[in-house]
Amino acid sequence: MQISVIGAGYVGLTTAACLAEVGHHVLCADSDLDKLKKLTAGRLPFFEPHLDSLVKRNTTAGRLQFTSPTEAIEKGSAIFICVGTPPLENGEADLSAIESVARTIASTARGYRLVIEKSTVPVQTAKRLWKHLSIYNVNALEFDVVSNPEFLREGSAVGDFFHPDRIVIGAESSRAIAMMKEIYRPVLTSPSACPVHSQCPPARDIPLIVTDTNSAELVKHASNSFLAMKISFINLVADACEAAGADIVKVAEGIGSDKRIGQSFLNPGIGFGGFCFPKDLQAFVRIGEKLGCDFSLLKEVEKINLRRAEQFVAKVKKELWVLRGKSIAVWGLAFKPDTDDVRFAPALNIVRRLLAEGASIRAYDPQAMQKAKDELPEITYCLSQYEAAQQADAILVLTEWDEFRHVDWDILAKTVAHPLLIDGRNMYSADQVVAKGFQYVGIGKEPQVVQFAPLRTGGDRLPCPPVPGSGVSPVAPASSRAIPAQSQP
Ligand code: UGA
């Protein structure tokens, strides 16, 4: 089947490359000519693990080509609409790009077209699309409109395409359902043939949920809002843990062991970000208002999330007292690991607040620095986490990149001005960090202070007095630090 994908962003390009990988012929289109040129030359506009090789392999094999939206609409019998639906000022999704694609289809296509809405859109958009296509139809075009929400996560989108939890098809004609089944047949029938894993997860039946278009559209917004709610919930519980002296890691394990709840999306932190949850949550609240439903639950989810950056900066201030003139190392800028995406990244929000308080920032992120520079030109970008930590008064961990798990603590201890690690993602165990001579502050846990051993050369070192209001003792500067008991010979 000749498939066209309109929009070469995170969703469109991944969908196009994966559909080509399973054997379809795919035309991927974008109205940005510069992006098209770069894609044709093999340069991707963003980082997504495995996508680069997938695009190369399939363009070389002739299954994937890049072109203009008009050509893609003329040639594709199934057209995936994957254009952006950014938030308007009032939180509603801006559907102008979708409307524009619909008008081009109605005015240029001939014969039959399956129009597949993959962009995240408010409920009833497929119905509007259908009406719009009918109104602007000039060539007696026959068409169906299908809603096929995507559930790809940035950073693992290729794997998610090949191993979906479910495929949702909102369609109202048997021809449309049959075509959609044909498109996804390779994924449904051979889920283990995947370009990501050397050994794929065990094969299982992938639920194919066929429903009406309104229901399919609601599945998408409700799924993202539910996951966002789970995160805000665990963040609330983390606050309670800090206040009561409990450990959120154990509490989350205890909650998530209930199969009805599940372990995933119970990691507390600096709040959810990215281009999906914050905007989809807002859009869903607006949808609720329009439908006359009380979605105040979701407004609270949003409020809790907006407070996370402020609360994290308060943690930093509690430890450093005054931020003006302090040098702060920031590890991680992307909204999550394995992506270079900094849209609505909580890390950027935190950095802006620290700058406003007069701190200077040295940041490192394995992939997102180029994109962060456009938004935050005023900070120092470093080539490694160690370079960022040079003479730092504190290290803040804001994205849980895998490479941050492998720290040479001895080098780090010699690099910083003050051994304080504030872990916004609970990447480390307090014991591990304290054993290396660092003070540790996580999320939903009590802060941990290094217990100094007696100096070997002189008299006993007395523990420093507690800082009023912080509940913890400061650690002596790295230069004068004693060797922690655990690392003494
Ligand atoms: C999300 C959904 O997970 C996808 O299913 C959906 O297709 C996608 O949005 C979309 O609508 O396009 P994504 O935004 O790529 O995917 O990333 P997630 O892994 O869901 O993480 C979102 C945010 O939540 C990140 O900032 C992450 O750090 C945060 N998060 C996630 C937590 O703070 N705690 C958690 O336990 C999990």
Helix and strand topology:
Elements lengths: L1 E5 L3 H12 L3 E5 L3 H8 L10 H10 L3 E4 L1 H7 L2 E4 L14 H13 L3 E6 L7 H12 L5 E6 L9 H6 L4 E4 L3 H16 L18 E4 L1 H32 L3 H9 L20 H15 L4 H25 L6 E5 L14 H11 L3 E5 L4 H7 L4 E2 L3 H4 L5 E4 L11 H7 L4 E4 L6 H6 L3 E3 L48
Helix pairs in contact: 1-3, 4-5, 5-6, 9-11, 9-12, 11-12, 12-13
Compact description:
The protein is α/β, with parallel strands linked by helices and 489 residues long. It has helices at 10-21, 33-40, 51-60, 69-75, 96-108, 125-136, 157-162, 174-189, 213-244, 248-256, 277-291, 296-320, 346-356, 369-375, 385-388, 409-415, 430-435, and strands at 2-6, 25-29, 64-67, 78-81, 112-117, 142-147, 167-170, 208-211, 327-331, 360-364, 380-381, 394-397, 420-423, 439-441.
Which parts are unreliable, with pLDDT below 50 for 5 consecutive residues or more? Answer: 457-489
Order of strands in the sheet with most strands: 3-2-1-4-5-6
Instruction: Catalogue the ligands.
Output: uridine-5'-diphosphate-glucuronic acid
The share of residues in helices is: 40-55%
Query: Oligomeric state of the chains?
Result: single chain
Provide mean pLDDT, rounded: 91
Q: How is the main sheet built?
A: 6 strands, parallel
Q: Any idea what the shape is?
A: elongated
Distance between the termini: 68 Å
Count of alpha and pi helical runs: 17
Number of strands: 14
Beta-strand share of residues: 5-15%
Round the Cα radius of gyration to an integer and report it. Answer: 25 Å
Derived structural class: alpha/beta
